[in-house]
Design goal:
heterodimer, A: mainly alpha, 2 domains, 11 helices, about 75% helix, B: mainly alpha, ABC transporter involved in vitamin B12 uptake, BtuC, two-stranded antiparallel ribbon, 14 helices
Chain lengths: ~290, ~325
């Protein structure tokens, strides 16, 4: 295996871990409420801008913005659930699909209005540079972001398995009515899941702002990819989203390497279509 | 559903006559343009309805069919001097075949899975067209100017002929969808929507009828695409193949009332003038205020009027009786 190929694999893994974190946030919402949050990518963009402005206005490094981004996105998720999503929960399926499209269009265009469509970047983050292992280069911010993503995913996994609230969320995901009968306050579980899902994408946004361009359209691509990851991993499956995220990251970089970088996302979407053809329920769905 | 009362027939005739008379009364380019866009999105909404409204296949990828229609006729015209009317039919057939090709792998997908798959499909098409030199890649294509005539599907001095062509397309689409839904195919589609398993048990081929619906819907949407190319005379992937077009089509159907024949028309008559006029009033600097309002509107509709305006009107109509 050539060293270039190993380098591509490393790059794929690095972006893959971050994809996993973004997708886990989405799959929680999807699994618990059977709702796709089409504004998920725009939440990511908002978090990146929060991080950007904290840096630009107050000189706060993105690594320290993580708790603030997480908290603010948690609140945003709570509000969107309470005032919008909870209203469509009993409505027709189409309304449930479309409502978050409205949120997405609104946020993306509000960002254009407020901050112009231009690309921004955090000029001098604390974490910068690369580690070299022979000929393999490892970007430090990307490595930290990936390690952080894995840790957060792990923490969430433990929270869902070990804590009482986490178990209530999992129970609701498995069977809403049974959970309700067992005394789970499913409305609170909904609100919490939506908020946690948003907070997770908030963390991912803070990580991403360390090394990625920040602009209102950034949510579009990341959002679409995370839908594919979630569906690929299987309906509401946290483990599935984690694995599918890494898989998509690797496929995307290798696809760009072997074919044409311009088509890397097309390859990802094609892989998704092929997978659901063979396994409509996704890799780990049931 | 199939039978109309005399009052309904009279109402439809009056509306049609009013629409035919409209360009004679209202002169001016912009109102005509808004009406043309209204007809076009109404047509695509009607076509979407066959999938989303009757068969619960919530397609968010109609832009792909729209784009395939627009590009096929344009490429045929530019490179092979094929008349756009023939291009329209070829584009429709190509879109229907593409729809079938994508419909087979997606035929077992339901609900959200279908929605995401349709987005993924449309994105693949967009990315490919953006990089495909033969179709002009990201720079797009400018249509060659032909002398204006109905045969050439091109008019320069006035928009009025486009208005009548699009109106005719819309009426044709409504008729086709009405015909399908009142006949056996429509019952099958609705049976599939109500209960997938039951329909299967009754011996209805789930896959086959869903494929038919996708193909007809793709054909009609591609017709609208060819029309758009002949009307705007310029094409690029970012104007015909993008997600917002697909979303607009879904919203038109949903606002009016998914699963009703006239629903998408009602939806389009509200939504399209609203978005065209707000764009002119607010969006001159590309600030996106018009789109923000649009987003708010979507949220309000889905939270408070999810059955659409048609549902509201029918409810009022029933109460009046």
């Amino acid at each position: 295996m050539s060293e270039q190929l190993i380098q591509q694999l490393v790059n794929g893994l690095l972006i893959g871990f971050l994809y996993s974190l973004i997708a886990i946030g989405l799959t929680m919402i999807w699994g618990v409420m059977n709702i796709i949050n089409f504004a998920h990518g725009d939440f990511l963009m908002l978090s990146m801008f929060i991080s950007f402005w904290l840096y630009t206005l107050y000189g706060l490094d993105p690594i320290f913005s993580i708790p603030i981004c997480t908290g603010l996105l948690f609140l945003l998720g709570l509000l969107i659930y309470k005032y919008l999503v909870s209203k469509v929960m009993t409505g027709p399926a189409l309304a449930q699909l479309v409502v978050t499209f409205g949120v997405s269009i609104f946020i993306a265009n509000a960002a254009v209005l407020l901050w112009t469509p231009d690309f921004k970047m955090i000029e001098k983050p604390l974490l910068t540079g690369t580690w070299s292992f022979g000929t393999i280069q490892l970007s430090i911010p990307k490595a930290v972001a990936s390690a952080g993503s894995v840790l957060v995913s792990l923490a969430l996994f433990l929270f869902l398995r070990k804590s009482k609230t986490g178990k209530a969320i999992l129970a609701t995901e498995m069977n809403r009515n049974s959970a309700l009968l067992m005394g789970v306050n499913t409305d609170r579980v909904n609100a919490l899941s939506f908020a946690i899902g948003s907070a997770l994408v908030g963390i991912a946004g803070a990580f991403l702002s360390m090394y990625y361009y920040i602009y209102p359209g950034v949510g579009g691509t990341f959002g679409l990819i995370s839908f594919c990851i979630v569906a690929l991993g299987g309906f509401g499956s946290i483990e599935g989203a984690f694995i599918a995220g890494i898989l998509i990251g690797i496929v995307q970089t290798l696809g760009g390497y072997f074919f044409d970088p311009a088509y890397k996302y097309a390859i990802v979407f094609a892989l998704y279509l092929v997978t659901v053809w063979i396994r409509p329920q996704g890799l780990l769905g049931w | 559903m199939g039978k109309f009362t005399p009052r309904q027939i009279a109402l439809y005739v009056v509306v049609l006559v009013a629409l035919i008379a409209f360009p004679l009364v209202v002169k001016g380019t912009f109102p005509t343009h808004v009406m043309i866009m209204f007809f076009m999105f109404a047509m695509m909404g009607v076509a979407w309805n066959l999938l989303g409204g009757y068969a619960a296949m919530f397609s968010f990828g109609q832009a792909a069919f729209f784009g395939i229609g627009a590009y096929t006729s344009t490429i045929l015209l530019m490179n092979y001097h094929v008349n756009p009317w023939i291009g329209l039919v070829v584009g429709g057939i190509l879109a229907a075949l593409t729809g079938a090709a994508i419909g087979i792998p997606c035929s077992n997908l339901r609900g959200h899975y279908f929605a995401i798959a349709s987005i993924a499909f449309a994105e693949i098409v967009r990315i490919c067209f953006n990089n495909w030199k033969f179709v002009g890649a990201a720079e797009g294509l400018s249509l060659p100017l032909l002398p204006e005539s109905l045969g050439n599907f091109m008019f320069h001095s006035t928009k009025v002929p486009y208005y009548y062509i699009m109106l005719a397309f819309l009426v044709l689409s409504i008729f086709i969808c009405w015909y399908i839904t009142v006949n056996r195919g429509g019952f099958y589609l609705r049976a599939i929507k109500e209960s997938h398993e039951l329909a299967k048990g009754m011996g209805i081929s789930f896959v086959r009828y869903r494929l038919y619906a996708i193909m007809v819907s793709a054909f009609l949407t591609a017709m609208a695409g060819t029309f758009y190319a002949q009307y705007i005379l310029y094409l690029d992937p970012e104007s015909v193949l993008i997600l917002p077009i697909s979303v607009q089509v879904v919203l038109v159907a949903m606002l009016g009332g998914a699963g009703t024949i006239m629903g998408p028309v009602i939806g389009a008559v509200i939504l399209i003038p609203l978005s065209e006029y707000t764009r002119v009033w607010l969006g001159t600097k590309g600030t996106g205020v018009d789109m923000m309002l649009y987003g708010v509107l979507i949220m309000l509709i889905s939270a408070y009027q999810p059955k659409g305006v048609w549902g509201l009107l029918t409810a009022i109509g029933k109460r009046a009786k």
